[in-house]
Amino acid sequence: MRKIQMVDLQTQYQEIKEPVDAGIQEVIDSASFVKGEKVQLFQEHLAQWLGVKHVIAVGNGTDALQIALMSLGLKPGDEVITPTFTFIATAEVAGLLGFTPVVVDVDFDTFNMSADAVRRAITPKTKAIVPVHLFGQCAEMEELLSIAREHNLYVVEDACQAIGSEYTFSDGQKRQAGCMGHIGCTSFFPSKNLGCYGDGGALFTDDDALAERIRVIANHGMTIRYHHDLIGVNSRLDSIQAAVLEAKLPHLKAYTAARQSAAAYYDKAFAGNPHLLIPGRSPHSTHVFHQYTLRLVPPAGVEASVYRDNVRNELQQRGIPAMIYYPVPLHMQKAYLDPRYKQGDFPSAERLAACVLSLPMHTCLDQEQLEYITTNLLQIVK
After folding, report:
1. Cβ–Cβ < 8 Å for 40, 202
2. What are the contacts of 342-346 at 24+ separation with CB within 8 A?
3. pTM for this one?
4. Same-domain pairing of 44 and 19
5. Sheet strand arrangement including 292-296
């Protein structure tokens, strides 16, 4: 059996080695390493794939989120609502720009932002909502967009873990993750569903004016060379990373299907086990399984986090990696402590932080590996 990894990029590379190597060699031969033709082609092809007017590639997913907020014309002290159970980037960029991050609880089953919690958190200072499509499925965008329209708020989607996930509205309309709000953001970090071989990210929008503003901000605020109309940053996807992504993009649907197949295997193996709750599914969104995240239910009298950590340690001793995303909600992070919040205010997020465990999930999991993972986990939790 091949060594089990959380993400097996080596095996995936061997399957696409020829086009990846050829694309990288083209960049080297052209010596067009920055803002080259490969970047432009990838942006165009990804826009076509997503069904969105504009894709602007940048240096990483966090840059994408920061540039998105910079483009909206918000003022210091304006409030930006984001979930408390997520990676730190959404609150981080708001804080860096002088905005006030406002965190809300999530749905215990889907892990995504609670629309009801968003409604309760809105104040006259609220200017934007940043839903995170966590672990690979979309947040409840129809309701969130309705709330945003009602209160004249911007919506910036963090789709860094959900590229390829499709959301179906009540009228039957379907849209890709990151293509429903004013701006969508994604990451091309190597472990993402569409990942490069370094850092990378992108912003999506159908708004022509916002797209132009984003391009200017990402390029030092320049409209004409050495003429800076806005305060900007320096953030761009390099041509070699674009070549890798261009080679991978035609495989993205197959990669998604492989992840969904592995998730279905996990679901079937763990269904009905009293100590394992499989990931909940939104009725409106497909799931692309950036992560396959279980919720562990401890025996009576055992603390959830202790049980989870013991299970994880036992898995690792058997050669099965497992990760905890995320052990500390944003409202309990030292850098973001806020007198408005205290432990217990966000019960779903705090429960999840104590009990979640993510299993290996990537495009190259084979039957032997899946059998080994599921058999051993079921032995451990029985």
Report:
1. no
2. 345/105, 346/84, 346/85, 346/103, 346/104, 346/105, 346/106
3. 0.96
4. yes
5. 276-277, 292-296, 356-359
Please state whether beta strands 79-83 and 126-129 pair in parallel, antiparallel, or not at all (unpaired). parallel
pLDDT digit string (tens) for 58-116? 999 999 999 999 999 999 999 999 999 999 999 999 999 999 999 999 999 999 999 99
280's CB contacts (< 8 A; 6+ apart) are: 107, 108, 109, 110, 111
244-288 pLDDT, tens digit each:
999 999 999 999 999 999 999 999 999 999 999 999 999 999 999
The structural domain count of the chain equals 2
Residue 344: HSE in the Cβ half-sphere, 13 Å Cα cutoff: 1
**Sequence-ordered strand ranges (E) for the chain:** 54-58, 79-83, 100-104, 126-129, 154-158, 166-168, 174-176, 183-187, 201-205, 222-224, 227-228, 276-277, 292-296, 356-359
How, if at all, do strands 292-296 and 276-277 pair? antiparallel
335 domain residue, yes or no: yes
Q: Kindly report the CATH number assigned to the domain that includes residue 259.
A: 3.90.1150.10
